Amino acid sequence: MNWNNIIHTIIFLSLTGPGILGNTLIFVRHIYMPALWIEKKPVDLILIHLAFSNIIIICSTGIRDIATVFYFRNFLGDTGCKTVVYLARMARGLSICTTCLLSVVQAITISPRTALWTKLKPQTACQVLPFILVFWIVNVLISSNLLSYIKAGSSLNRSVAATFIGHCYMLQSRHIIKWFFLSLMTLRDVIFQSLMGWSSGSMALHLYKHHKHVLYLYSSRSANNSAPEIRATWRVLTLMTCFLFFYWVDFILSFYTGFSVTHDSSSLNMKTFLELGYASFSPYVLISRDFRVPNVLHAH
């Protein structure tokens, strides 16, 4: 194993282990709440789905990286390659949509009750399910083209033009198909990131007004009454910042490698870090600002 593979393995292990542990804690913690007689809120179901999407990203990307680093030529095959690449792409889309939904719901939650959009606030966890179902349908369809163009290296004809994507290869598709699905992905990202921008701006404005209000009143009682909402808002804003950082750096790197002739090991290692980064770090952003976790464990 050369130094590039060693570095790749270190990056992979340092992200996948903590990432699976953190998302499992978030998943189990919010699944287990009804057993502790704690009311399940719409945000809880959103966090369950976000943790589930992150676990899919980590596992599918991890399997592909293991096969790449250790040169397991026949480890996946065509079916395995199609499965891990498809799941990683689909789960990434689910993560984008779910993060956006979390941001919008939190923005509506803390907005003044006189605002018109407060009527859109889901009151129960069941009201979030239609949104999650739509997210699955959209991302399953957007990623469906991968099933036709992903091949394993062992079954690939060397005379066929293909792009190496880590143990697996992506065949060249017709331009009309390529640009159609690329346009759908771009449209999805633009819509959901625009909603993230609106909700993040709304939350930031609310936090600023709250800060001025507390300074004006200088009353600890008024500050304590709104502390849970403010903590939750800071948590979501920190999560948005984390998401946008990994998304845009990954986008810039992908754009660069897509038009460059050579794909050096440094860019591949960086891309692995960016692909796994948000899925691995986001649960710890949630845990670090969720003060109810110790109380739930204590109650148990």
From TrEMBL:
It comes from the Eukaryota. GO terms for cellular component: plasma membrane. One of its GO terms (biological process) is response to pheromone. It is a multi-pass membrane protein. One of its GO terms (molecular function) is pheromone receptor activity. The keyword Transmembrane helix applies. Residues 22-286 form the G-protein coupled receptors family 1 profile domain. The chain crosses the membrane at residues 6-31, 43-63, 128-150, 236-259. Putative pheromone receptor. Belongs to the G-protein coupled receptor 1 family. This is Vomeronasal type-1 receptor. The lineage of its organism: Eukaryota, Metazoa, Chordata, Craniata, Vertebrata. The gene is Vmn1r192.
